Every structure is written in structure tokens, then in C-alpha cells.
Amino acid sequence: MLQENARKNDIAARIGGEEFALLLVNTPAAEAATIAERIREAVSVHDEQSLRPPVTISVGVYTTTSPQSDAETCVVRADQAMYQAKTNGRNQVVSWAE
């Protein structure tokens, strides 16, 4: 479902048991949040049609324009945003704000 709702040049990967990452290159923060929301909504709609018990996703978005940003920092900050989404009540998108 992640790949179905991503763009052609995006890279989707499983990074943990129930954690996935989507790398969006050259994507403004607002567009990244829109893509994340589209995926979150697609999971919710799919759930209504076929999955029980209910399945939702919490999404953390991190964007940077700094060439000094390394992959580990990006993952850590996206993970922090995702945990904030869970703390806020789950089934939502939270963007990292510096």
C-alpha cells in the first residue's frame, strides 16, 4: 500500500517490524506531509473495507534542505515525529519542526 500511494521516484522500505520509511527526494515539507496524509487515509479506507480489528497508522515526517543531514539524523527525527503522532492519539501525521 505504501508503494501504491508513493510517487514513481520515491523509495519505500521496511525498517523495523511494523515501521516503514518513505524517502522523498527534492520534496518540500508541505508536499511530504500531503503524501503522508494520502497514505494514512488510504490505510484507513482499506481498513474499513476489509480489515478487522481496525488498523491505523501514525506517520512522522521530517524534511531537510541541509546537505550536512545524514541518514541517521533523518530517521531519528522522523521517528520522534511518529512517536508524537502516537502520543497525540494515533492515526495522524506529525511533521518534525526545528
How does this model look, in words?
By secondary structure, this protein is α+β, with helices and mostly antiparallel strands. The chain has one domain: Alpha-Beta Plaits. Helices cover 44% and strands 14% of the residues. It has helices at residues 2-5, 29-50, 71-87; strands spanning 11-14, 20-23, 59-61, 93-95. The strands form two sheets. Strands 1-2 form a two-stranded antiparallel sheet. Strands 3-4 form a two-stranded parallel ribbon. The longest helix has 22 residues, at 29-50. It is globular and about 45 Å long. The termini are far apart. The mean pLDDT is 87.
- The parts where pLDDT drops under 50 for at least 5 residues are none
Q: What do we call the CATH homologous superfamily? A: Reverse transcriptase/Diguanylate cyclase domain
| Secondary-structure content class | alpha+beta
User: What fraction, in percent, of the residue positions are helical?
Assistant: 40-55%
The count of strands amounts to 4
Tell me, briefly, the overall form.
Answer: globular
| Total helical segments | 3
Beta-strand content: 5-15%
Order of helices and strands: HEEHEHE
**Biggest sheet, spatial arrangement of strands:** 1-2
CATH architecture type: 2-Layer Sandwich
Biggest pleated-sheet summary: 2 strands, antiparallel
> Taking all residues together, what is the mean pLDDT?
87
Give me the Rg, rounded.
13 Å
CATH fold-level assignment:
Alpha-Beta Plaits
CATH top-level class: Alpha Beta
Structurally, the number of domains stands at 1
